[in-house]
Each structure stands twice: as C-alpha cells, then as structure tokens.
Amino acid sequence: MTGSIRWAGNKKRIAATLAILLLIVSVLSGCWDLRYLDRLGVVMAVGVDSDPTGKQQLRVTMQTVLAQNAAAGNKLASEGMAVTTFTETGDTMFEAIRKMTRKTSRRLFFSHTRLLIIGEQAARKGVFPLLDLIERNPDIRGDIAVMIARNTTAEQLLQTTTQIDAIPANQMYDTLEINEHALGQEYLVRVQEITRMALQKKQQVAIPSITLEGDEAAGNDEQNLKRIHPTVQPELSTMAVLKEGHLKGFLTAKESRGLSWMLGRVKSTVVKAACPNSEGYFMVEISGSKVNMSAVKPKDGIPVIQIGIKPEGSVKEVMCSDLPVDEEEMLKEIGKLIDQSIEGEIEAVIVKLQKKMQLDTFGWGRLIYMQKPALWRRIDKEWDVVYPKVQHELKIKTRIKDTGVRGNSIVK
Amino acid sequence: MFSDYMLSRGRKKTKKQEDREKELQQNQLGEYEQEPLLPVLADNIKLLQSEMGNSNDIVVRELALEGEGGFIKVAIIYVQGLVDEFRMNESIIQPMQSVPFQAGPDDPSRVQDELKNKIVAAGRVEEAKDWKKLFEGLFLGNALILLDGCNTALASSCVGGERRAVEEPKTETAIRGPREGFVEALRVNTALIRRKIRSPKLWMEQKTIGRETQTPVCIMYMKGLASEDTLQDLRDRLDAIDIDGILESSYIEELIADQKWTPFPTILNNERPDVIASNLLEGRIAILVDGTPFVLIVPTELNMFFQAAEDYYQRFDVATFLRLLRFFSYVLALVMPSVYVAVVGYHQEMIPTPLLLKLVAQREGVPFPVYLEAFIMELVFEILREAVVRMPTIVGNAISIVGGMVIGQSVVEAGIVSPPVVIVVAFTAITSFVSPTYNLGIAARLLRFLLLIAASTLGFYGISIVLLLLLLHLSNLRSLGMPYMKPFSPMFRKDWKDTLLRAPMWMMRERPQAIAVDNLVRADMDTKELEGQEPVQ
C-alpha cells in the first residue's frame, strides 16, 4: 500500500517537473525560428552580371515582391509596382546579397525564388561558381530555373515591367514553360540539373536564353505598362550552349529545337513542311515524341550513335491546294515530309555542336560510358578528339494520328 | 488489472475513515433511521412533522374509518406535488371510506392486512417497517398510510406530479430515426428502453446513490452479452461512491471514471433510447440516473464519439462518407489554427507563392504577431460561443450579430487582425460543430489552445510533439478497465467494420469482439444454437 502511494507521489512529482520543463522550454526557445511574414522580402528572381566597373566580380540584382501591390484584389493595394529590385556588387553572391541589407528593411527570403538570370558576360566567365550558394543553402530551392540574358544584362531584364503578369519573374518563367510545352524551342533547365551534369562531367549544359525586345531603357517605367504594345518586353531567345560551365554561344531557332528533339525535351510542338504538289505549307502538331539513343559497335574504333525518334502528331493546318488528307496513303507521305523537316533541324544542330563547336551537349560521351564501358575506357582520354569524328545514324518515323476535324482543305 | 486497483482502493479505508463515515451517516437521518415506528398514530405524526421541520408540502390527512366495533384512526401522509392527488383519492381514500372494515380498532394489524390486500387499489403497496423506509417511500412519491396502534406503515404508489413529456432529443437530432428522447423520470426512461428490447434478457439493477438526494440509479444490460467482470467492476465503483447528491449523470461519470486527468470523455452519454438500445445489444452497460435524460454507456471507446445514430439509418456508403467527414473535421478543428500559425510563422516555404504573396499583403501593417492574432481570435470566438450558449435565445441573436459584425468586419477593416486568421478561426468553428458528441468537441476546444502554444513556439515540430503525446495519452486511457482506443489499440481487426467506416448491415454479423465476451453472433444465426446457449454466469 505504502509502495503504491509513494509511487503515486512520484508520478505526480514527475508530471509536475515535466510540465515545468515544458513551460521553460517553450519560453527558452523564444520562438526559435519564427519569421514574421510581414518582415520578409520575397525574392522572386536573382540576376547576376559581371560588375561593369570591374572593381568586383559580380553585380547581383534581386527582384523582390512588394506584396501589398502584387496581391490583386487586396483593398490596401496602392498604385505602385508589384516588384522592386535591389542591386549590389560583390566578389561572391552571398557577399552581394548580405550587402543589400544596407538598402532593404526586410529580410530577403529565397524559398520562393523561381528564376536565376545570368548575364552574358558573367556566363562566359563561368556559371558553376554562381550555383554553389543555391545548392548549398537549405533555404533556397534547387529547382530554380536558370536563364541567360542575351544581348542585355540580367539587371536590365529584371527591371523591365511586364504586362500580363505583374511580377516579371513570373512572366519570364511562365513564358519558358509555355514555350517548352507548345513549341519546344527552349526547355526549362533547373539548377539541380546543371549541378548533376557538371558532376557527371560527361555532358555539356545548354541553358535557355532570354532577351529584351524593344527599347531597353523604357522597361523600368510604369509607362511601359500603360501602352497596348509595350515599348519593351522580355522575349525568349534560343538555347545557349556552354562548355564546362562557360558560355560558348547561342544556337539558332532551328538548331535550338533540333537540340530539344535530340534530348527528348519536345513535349508538344508544331512542324512545318512544304506542300508536296503545290505552293504553300502545312502544319503538323506533334503531341509527343519518343527518343531512343544508343551507342553501337564502333567502325574503326570510332563510335556510332543511333538516334531513333518517333514523334506522334496530327495535321492541324493545311494551306495546300492539293493535299488529300482523307487518304490513308497520304498520311504516310505526310509523315515522311515531317520526318524530313525534323531531320533538317537535328542535322543542323549536330553539325553546329559536334563539328563546329565540338560540344558534347547531346550527352554522347555519357551514352557510350553507360552502354559501352569498354570502348569508353579506350577513348576516355582523347574524347575531345574522338567526339567530332563520331558517326551517327538518324532514324525518324513520324506517325500521323489524324487530320483534325476537317477533311480536305478548302484551299484551291 | 483493474481489480487490483479496486482492491487497493478498498484497502485504503482506514479506521479513521470508517469512523467518519459513521458520523456522516448519523448526521443523515438522526437517531430514527433504523428504528421502528411508534405504536400511537399521533406520536408518529408529530415525530414525522418535527423531523421534517413542519415543511408545508407534507400533507397529513387524518381519517376516522368505520370498523368492526368502533372507528379506526388512519392518517394518509404524502408530499404534495410528488403524488397524483386525484388518483390517490380514487385508489386509497374513496375505497377506504366507502366500505366498513371487517376488522376493528382493537386489531390494527388485521386492518392493515385488509387495507393492503382488499381496499387500496394501487399497483404497488409496500410495508415500511422503519423510519428509513418510510422516508424513502414518502420522497419517491408514495402515499403513506399510517394506522393507530400499528408500528408499520403502508406505502402505496401513486406517483404523479408535473413532468416533461417525451420529446425529440435536443442535443442529437436525426433526419431519419426515432424521434423520442429520454426524459428526467427514471421509470419512463427504463420503459423507453424496454420498448426497444422486448427480451427477458434485458436485466436491470437499481441502486440508490447520494446520501441526501437518494437518487435512484439503474444499471441496464443484456444478460449473457455484457461482460460479468465489467459489470462487477461497475457495481463496485458505484457502491464506492459516497456523495451527498447526484444531480446529473455527469456526477457518476466523473466519479467512476478510470482516469480523472484527461480532457477526453471516457464515458459516453446519450439521450436517445435507440442509441442506448444498440449499445446494450453490443454488450455494453447503460447507467440511467433519475432526474436527467442523459444516460451513460460503459465501456466507451473514442471511436464511439464519432458515430451518430443516423449512421445506421442511412445507407452504409453515405454513412461511411459522413463518418469520414466527421473524423476529418475533428482533426481539422483540432489542428487548423496551429497549422496556420506554424506555416505562416515558420514554414513559409510550404505555401504556394501566389498564396504567400496574398498572405504577406494581408499581414502588412497588422500589429500583432500571427500566433497572438490566432490566440486572440480563438479566445474571442470561445467567449462568443459561451455567451450565445448561456444567454436566452432572444439575446443570443443579438450577440451573434454583434459578434459577426465586430469580428468579421470591423477588426479586419481596422487592420487589427488579418483576414486569413478570421477565415481560419471561422472555419475551425464550423468544423468543431460537426462532432456528433458535444463533450468530445469540448476536448478539441481545449487541446486547440495547447496546440496553438506548441505551434507558436516550435512550429510543426511542436505540433507533432503534442500530437504524439496525445496519441500516447489516448492509448493510455481506460474506460471501465477497457482500453479507450479499442479496436485500434489493442487491435481487433473484425471490429473495424464499424469504426471509421460503417460496413453494410449484412456484413456486420458479429458483435464487437472487444466488448461482448460471448454470444458474438448477431445476425444470420441458427436459432437452435441460440436456445441452447447458457447465459454466462
């Protein structure tokens, strides 16, 4: 009996001690990691240029949301801009960012950053050093999209107002996504993909580029928004190709989509082909494409890459007077015409990247490493010499599923 | 395991306590308690009146009745308001006066027999041999018949007085299902259950609890279904109660509960006879207390609080959906404000960007940190709710208008509180009303504040700590010795048919294994088998 009573007493004491400890802990923690929402400056995009004055390495621009202006439908919203930018120079990214506290009254918050824009100059110096901060810091996401500012600076781009989306970073990001899903000329590249490729060291990176269309100087002004056709607006350019993280050049629009075809990044696109028997063109909308690349046994020690591409699509526009799409045989012929168009794009990019620039953006080296390790061991050391000599066999087989809800065209 | 606990509780009665008990009992009814009545009628009347302080509602009607060889002095004593006076006149006084007695005043015991066996036309006539019985009979609404020269009294039942009629229960309404609810009178309530289960196996045990209130408490169970161990446990616990008054079943609920320190109700109460009947058929035990429509059910599981009577009257798919909805709402009611505080205060990266920007904009210029804001609004809501419950209905409307205006409009417009908090608090309020049982809802109200504190100091980490502790606590709870988290912990897979889901009737052929010890088959059974089955002893 006494035992049970003593135990009950102990139990009470333990409970009381625990309660007190819990209370102390909750006070000691002092709201530990608490961040006040209204004290955060939400950074949507980061821009990096090389410092034009040359005093320091980098010139970093932050596009930060002014939430009271950005949130539509908010009564408190004033007439001001949805975003503001802070620019600061520094030898490293972090230095520049922390130096910005001289100008911001809020803690910059990177968890929602979507976009990293790298100026052309800075990209030529090297992209990899700029990514370490993003990869290393747990507060910053690794799935930030990377773009290269072509013929302009990242700062200029981030200071350009946009009409459709009040936050320019969103507009640029969404444009890229729409482009990838509807034209396939450029595709989204995330920081973590670049890091992964850099670590594998067997594939060169390509990054989409963006430029400004119009009068650059007019971008940083409300007037740009008040016109029906803006004086200046961001416009996607083509894929930029890099070597070991250094910008080497830009592809043409044709080559750019050729690269997308090769890498299987085409989700949906349109392909143009000339009418077989008359003037004009017809269009096929591709709704999906399967790519199969494989390394086969070498001829004379030079590897051969087989590329098989199987797009699927349907005829969506016919401007030809003599293209009877309601004939079964015609569909196969259309498919072949489309094959030729796609082949042209792919051959163009192979010529450009393999022969001229000698950049292994296609990941052929990695392909050989994966599929023919013995061969790779032999050519690993002299891959730079071997690569331009690598043969390829391209096979494209487009399947036309249907011709839309119209039979033959009314074009005469 | 529980019997050990009971034993230790029994052993705790030291000599000192026993002395005190005796003293208390003496205070109770004075020295007359066990003593027989006096032989002279006038003395008895005098004693009774003085003992009761000449209370006005005690009516003493003295009669002189014609008997063999003289008049017999008789007194009829009753409490006004507890007795149906009209019926008493018809069944006791009129028959007494109309026919002369065969016995005379010199043989009062024969007169009493005559009265009891021949004259009094009441359903139940009992002999009260001592003062204790006499008072008991008096206060239960009997008319006492005292004879001169006789040291026992007759207690003739003619219970009457004002009572609430059987109405639709207010706390738990159903769209489909019986419309009757329990009332305050114990006998009506037991009858309501008898009307549902017409079986000789429905057994009933009555106890009187409360030193002063002498409240009749009734245990009802299905013989052969309810566990005998649990029954004995319950009897012991009820017998151990020593309190001056039982005014509501909640007194008993608190006094017999296994764990006293918990926000969760470990005993279910309900005012629907159909719910009680279905629980009796599962092998549970009902405790009916006179003076309240709320009947207790033991043993209780957490799971039962999410079941509404209507679940069994609607199609099983609908019922399952509603049950899941209820469970989900309860979780929401518990964690929503704290999750909001944690997300906004600590885990902003979890919010989709457009929503984050909205929230930032809304919080712009709000003077309080988010946790304080949430805390204030929750508190304001609790105050409003309490005010509406306590106020008369007419005033209640005014309160809701003022509350709605002040909270919904002005506070937000003045920029003192951000709109999302108001949305969260309002939605939490609605979800907390989904819980079919009121007292589990109150538990959520309390725990919400605990979670809010955890969330505002440690974010999601704090919430998960508190939720884990809650889970531990729940698994530790017992209801009359039975685990509260049954059938999840310990696990009874077969019983899961009627937990979060409600399986179709034709699939629930067996009673919950966790409750009924024997006689598991509920439906689709062989009748011969049932007849052969001996009740558990």
UniProtKB/TrEMBL annotation, chain A:
The keyword Signal applies. This is Spore germination protein YfkR. Residues 35-211 form the Spore germination protein N-terminal domain. It holds the Pfam family Spore_GerAC_N. Keywords: Germination, Lipoprotein, Membrane, Palmitate, Signal. GO terms for biological process: spore germination. It comes from Paenibacillus radicis. Its main location: membrane. Residues 239-404 form the Spore germination GerAC-like C-terminal domain. PANTHER family: SPORE GERMINATION PROTEIN B3. The gene is yfkR. GO terms for cellular component: membrane. It is a lipid-anchor. Belongs to the GerABKC lipoprotein family. It is found in: Membrane.
From TrEMBL, chain B:
The keyword Transmembrane helix applies. The chain crosses the membrane at residues 324-346, 391-408, 414-434, 446-472. InterPro entries: Spore_Ger (IPR004995), UPF0353/GerABKA_families (IPR050768). One of its GO terms (cellular component) is membrane. It holds the Pfam family GerA. Keywords: Membrane, Transmembrane, Transmembrane helix. Residues 1-29 are annotated as: Disordered. It comes from the Bacteria. One of its GO terms (biological process) is spore germination. Belongs to the GerABKA family. This is Spore germination protein KA. The gene is gerKA.
